[in-house]
Amino acid sequence: MSDTSLVRLAGVSKGFVKGKDAITIFERLDLAIPQGDFVAVMGPSGSGKSTLLNLLGGIDRPDSGEIHIAGSRIDTLSEGQLSQWRAATIGFVFQFYNLMPMLTAAQNVELPLLLTRLGKAERRTHVETALKIVNLADRAKHYPREMSGGQQQRVAIARAIVSDPELLLCDEPTGDLDRASADEILGMLTILNRDLGKTIVMVTHDPAAARYASRTLHLDKGHFEEKELAA
Amino acid sequence: MNDFLLVRKNLFRKKLRAILMIVSILIAFAIFGVLAAFERAFNAGEDVSEADRLVVVNKINFTQPLPIAYFNRIAAVEGVRQVTFANWFGGYYQDPKNFVIVMAVEPETYLKVTGTDFAFTPEMTQAFVRNRTGTLVGRALAEKWGWKVGDRIPISSSIFSQKNGTHTWDVTIVGIFDKNKPQADTNLMFIQYPYFDETRSFGKDTIGWLVLKTASSAVNDQVIKTIDQMFANSSWETATDTEKAFNKAFVAQLGNIALIVTLVVGAAFVTILMIVGNTMVMAIRERTREIAVLKTLGFSGARVLRLVLGETLLLAVIGGTLGLGLATLATLLMRQSLSMFVPGLRMSPEIVLTAVGFMILLGLATGLVPALNAFRLKIVEAMGRG
Amino acid sequence: MLKQIVAVTAINLKSIPRRFWLSLSTVVAVALVVMVLLSFLAMSAGFRRTLASSGAADVAIVLRAGARAELNSVIARDQVRLLEDAPGVARDAQGKPLASAELYLVVDGIKKTTGTKANLPLRGIGESGAAIRKGIRLTEGRMFAPGSNEVVVGKSLLREFQGFELGRTVKFGTALWTVVGVFEADGSVFESEIWADLPVVQSLFNRPNTFQILRARLSGPDGLAAMKAFNDGDPRLKLDVKSEQDYFSEQSSQTSDLIQKLGWPLAIAMAFGAMAGALNTMYSSVASRSVEIATLRAIGFGGFPAFVGTLVESLLLAGIGGVIGAVATWLIFDGFSASTLGASFTQVVFSFRLTPALIGQGVALALIVGLIGGLLPAIRAARMPIVQGLQG
């Protein structure tokens, strides 16, 4: 495998027990995603899309196999180490935005910076930059309830990129949005990928969304089926 | 923004709920503050007492008299630095309902022995010693009746009468004294024992009790033993004790005040512990998803635990501080009207410190379960992403 | 409408287990409030009953003017003689006046529960001292023999203080006394006393010819007035003559009022705390049932049933708390024996008494907490916009 891979899964197995049945999701799965890639992961419900994202984000652990991301082997890290690693390396974007309702847009974006050593002034600059990137500089003082779904998701993206992580993990980022808002969000992700060089893994079941990615992985019964798309 | 802001925003996201919790904490601390102030006031005698002061009373009971001759005999005991005596007068002013604490005291020595409690100036000491019908009145008592130095006041006794049949003695105020210790109470007055003894119709040459100062508290036991043995098997046996032990035993006669205070405060705290504890568990449960998001962003379990504990601590400190404030106000308001019954009612630094301790304990106790829940929360399960 | 109310209320009550811990905390909070209130009221009632049963209307008590308490009073021998023959004083079959001049002294005893010194009353009584009082009955032993240093003790005193068992010797000063009898006195304050023969007390306590009070059985309803008139008319007397009943009720009111004045504000303050808890519980209840309430409203139920249902839930929780509090107080404190310093500077032993009327007051307080705690959430339930509720 190439050393330029940002993400590398080797022989990863994962299953869970439901009642009396042991259900296998992945069996000895291998995957490599190079630095700067924009990958869409598609597949039917229960195919393991979300589990894959959880494993990549270090919020779930494989039963066996190795996961290397940005030079760290994360499947052997402790919970505390994982937290630190996540704060530094991963940016999450969720389907339902998951903003803190009692915080303003700027404060929501600032949240991950509390985990860094940055001072107050530096944090403010970072937040302003991130909000500018998502075109929401004028909404800094607004609360989530005062914003549309698309705007909230842009805040969530700003939150995901504010600490300058190498890998963005997006879980159905447009699943709760209308077409226009969805296109806006996807355009933004493209820019992040192309101009800022962010590696993005996006789970979606919307083919229109997947078209924004440089390639799509189809996950079915724990196996990948790659389809290269024209950029 | 910092963690404190996050904690504050979390606490007040449901304003009504936060306010209701603060109110219940406030009340528990107000109850604690007032009752603790009462208890301290009841035990003020113990606080005012000094380690090298002993009290000698009749062994049968302290209301029984002792012969005046004991004054000189005890003064001669080795280890006794200074001795004085007093007699309870059973005083009232104008109407038996207007109970006044009056003590007939040996003028010269009494002011010396109690000089650390009260601020007797040299002038008033001299005036009191020289003037047979003079009286020294405490500031609080003087203010209560509007008495001034030079006033001639009739003080009646519900126990004694004069040889001419009257129950009333006329005395002239030669000084109004303040206190030297915050716990001391100036709701009392002193008259001259010689004047009282010569004029009363019965009980001549007997005294109520003696107070003495030892050379040092180290010889207390020796002095106590010597005095009690000296009078053993006489018709007036004595019981000598430290002033502190004597005052403590006296307060204990009212009933187990400390126990009542403990029970009531305990009940109040158990109540808020249940209310606040359960409400916080519920509040954190409602926020399960948000906590999962925080953890996804990279907040560690320990940090999330601290955020939740910070919230309950903040709650306890706000409610507790307001409650203590209310208690302070209440004691100030009650101070005047209850001055006869519980003199020296006040919010002492010790009570405040104890309350702060309770706030921290309460904050930790109510936050423990929800904080641990948040700490243990698994992101995958919480987000329904299993 | 009634059907609707019943249906909604049933849904409310069935959903309580979902909020088990929160509901329980309301119940416990209310129970503790009621316990605090009732224990103070029971203490106050017990103390008042002890003193109330001490005073007889047909016994007069004579004290030095302005003395207010037996301990402070002093009466001269001549005054005693005059009063014994006063009009209004009843006489026995032999024509002797039913009057008892008494000496009231304080002696030290040790309280069993705390091991601390306590003031106990030692009363030197005259020949007819026991006969004047109502309901005096020896439960053990016999009466002291005149002229001997023997004592009889009240059964409350025996229960609360060390070393007064029948046959024991007690030492007051240098004198030794033997306990020869135990008496009861209708639960009155006399049961907290030690009685001995007056002349013996006078001599052993160095109080020759000293008297403090005189008690006399009155000859009839006009007896007191006759005695008073006689007293006021003789310049050698000028004493305070009152019925024993009045004397004790004056004393009881001070202490029992004080206990009540402590108990009610404490209970009310705590009730506010519990009310905050109840409000919280009920708001949560309404919030957690918002979908159900909105669904019912959407299919045609009115707002009033939602209001009643919420209020009933709140009243039920508080009511259960009130009953638990009352039962717990009754189990723990009813009959609980305690003692405090009475007006005569001596220990008065009394038992906590939880009467049905007091229990009523406790439960009423609980229901008030439930009513107020449920009212605002009930209004919210009734006014909840259907659409918003359906969204959960």
UniProtKB/TrEMBL annotation, chain A:
GO terms for molecular function: ATP binding; ATP hydrolysis activity; transmembrane transporter activity. Residues 7-229 form the ABC transporter domain. Pfam families: ABC_tran. It comes from the Bacteria. InterPro entries: AAA+_ATPase, ABC_transporter-like_ATP-bd, ABC_transporter-like_CS, ABC_transpr_LolD-like, MacB-like_ATP-bd, P-loop_NTPase. Belongs to the ABC transporter superfamily. Macrolide exporter (TC 3.A.1.122) family. One of its GO terms (cellular component) is membrane protein complex. This is ABC transporter ATP-binding protein. Keywords: ATP-binding, Cell inner membrane, Cell membrane, Membrane, Nucleotide-binding, Translocase, Transport. It comes from Rhodoplanes roseus.
UniProtKB/TrEMBL annotation, chain B:
GO terms for cellular component: plasma membrane. Pfam families: FtsX, MacB_PCD. Residues 265-378 form the ABC3 transporter permease C-terminal domain. It is a multi-pass membrane protein. InterPro entries: ABC-4/HrtB_transporter (IPR051125), ABC3_permease_C (IPR003838), MacB_PCD (IPR025857). Keywords: Cell membrane, Membrane, Transmembrane, Transmembrane helix. It is found in: Cell membrane. Residues 21-229 form the MacB-like periplasmic core domain. Its main location: membrane. The chain crosses the membrane at residues 18-38, 257-284, 304-331, 351-375. This is ABC transporter permease. It comes from Rhodoplanes roseus. The lineage of its organism: Bacteria, Pseudomonadati, Pseudomonadota, Alphaproteobacteria, Hyphomicrobiales.
TrEMBL record, chain C:
It is found in: Cell membrane. Residues 24-207 form the MacB-like periplasmic core domain. Residues 267-386 form the ABC3 transporter permease C-terminal domain. Pfam families: FtsX (PF02687), MacB_PCD (PF12704). It comes from the Bacteria. InterPro entries: ABC-4/HrtB_transporter (IPR051125), ABC3_permease_C (IPR003838), MacB_PCD (IPR025857). Keywords: Cell membrane, Membrane, Transmembrane, Transmembrane helix. It is a multi-pass membrane protein. The chain crosses the membrane at residues 20-43, 262-283, 304-333, 353-376. One of its GO terms (cellular component) is plasma membrane. This is Peptide ABC transporter permease. It comes from Rhodoplanes roseus. The lineage of its organism: Bacteria, Pseudomonadati, Pseudomonadota, Alphaproteobacteria, Hyphomicrobiales.
